[in-house]
Design goal:
With 298 residues, this protein is an alpha+beta fold. It has helices spanning 27-35, 58-81, 88-101, 168-186, 194-207, and strands at residues 105-106, 119-122, 125-127, 141-150, 153-162, 211-212, 218-220, 227-231, 248-251, 254-256, 262-264, 271-273, 279-281, 284-288, 293-295.
């Protein structure tokens, strides 16, 4: 058994067993340890329960609004840029540079390994399409999903773009999907239930012969990219989570022309329709108020 350093004199053999005198071996290091205070360790950050809904303060809502307004500006400025002949990588570069130019960060970049700064979902891609060298063609439809982090707050929104002249069935899908978003927003009532939102969206989509994607949903947002609650775009009224003033979440219905079923490609991100049918999506971030709803990304 080794001797405790405090019981060894400077001329004794070192306690470490090296054969050297203590003063020629560990004496200096032990002396420093004795006079130097221990370095304080950072307290572990408390982990937020992902199932717990965070009600936002007025100050937080204003920060989220500013981030959402930058997201809206990026989507607005993309309108003349998104056209036939450009690649989805060019869209990613546009979004990335504009986000940084306004002092923000693109939330998708690096999120759980996502490799780009924006999601570009073309034609039969439902969501989470990864930008690449794919060239936009006449008649394409594309969803562009932008999320900024500005001053620590997340602002999330997406919209559809039409490339050149688009066939009437695709135009109609885009219009009805936007109507689904608007109907969902109008369904948000303080002290209602999140199932009311999904029910209204599902009823409208299916009345037009379309299907609602089940595998993806809206979500709480603002302090983190994805928070509680989950906002399903289908369901029964009176079910789900109680809607409370101060809740901030997205509504982002994904509506398919064909079957609702989806699959994930080998890149582990891109979700597509299993039958190759077109898909459309619109998204807003909103805050529940005492009297209704405030659309922060409008």
């Amino acid at each position: 058994m080794k001797t405790e350093p405090s019981s060894v004199s400077r001329n004794d053999p070192c306690w470490c067993g090296s054969g050297k005198k203590y003063k020629k071996c560990h004496w200096g290091k032990d002396r420093l340890k004795a006079v130097m205070p221990a370095r304080p360790q950072p307290k572990p950050r408390p982990r937020q329960d992902p199932r717990k809904v965070r009600l936002k303060t007025p100050e937080q809502v204003e920060g989220i609004r500013q981030s959402c307004q930058l997201t809206k500006k990026i989507l607005d400025d993309l309108t003349p840029f998104v056209r036939e002949g450009i690649t989805t990588n060019a869209i990613d570069q546009f979004v990335h540079e504009m986000t940084l130019d306004h002092g923000a960060q693109p939330a998708p970049l690096g999120y759980r390994g996502f490799p780009k700064s924006v999601c570009t979902s073309l034609n039969h891609v439902i969501c989470h399409g990864i930008p690449d060298e794919t060239v936009l063609r006449e008649g394409d439809i594309i969803n562009i999903d932008v999320t900024c982090i500005l001053d620590g707050y997340f602002g999330d929104a997406s919209r559809m773009y039409q490339i050149g002249t688009v066939a009437e069935p695709a135009q109609r899908l885009i219009e009805v999907t936007r109507e689904c978003l608007e109907i969902g927003i109008r369904s948000v009532k303080p002290f209602g239930m999140t199932g009311d939102i999904g029910h209204a969206i599902q009823r409208h989509a299916e009345a037009h012969g379309y299907s609602v994607v089940r595998e993806f949903a809206g979500h709480g947002v603002g302090i983190e990219f994805h928070e509680a609650p989950q906002i399903l775009h289908y369901g029964e009224p009176g079910t789900g989570v109680l809607i409370q003033p101060g809740m901030v979440f997205t509504i982002e219905p994904m509506i398919n022309m064909g079957r609702a079923d989806s699959k994930i490609l080998k890149d582990k991100w891109t979700a597509v329709t299993v039958d190759g049918s077109l898909s459309a999506q619109w998204e807003h971030t909103l805050c529940v108020t005492e009297s209704g709803v405030d659309v922060l990304s409008a």
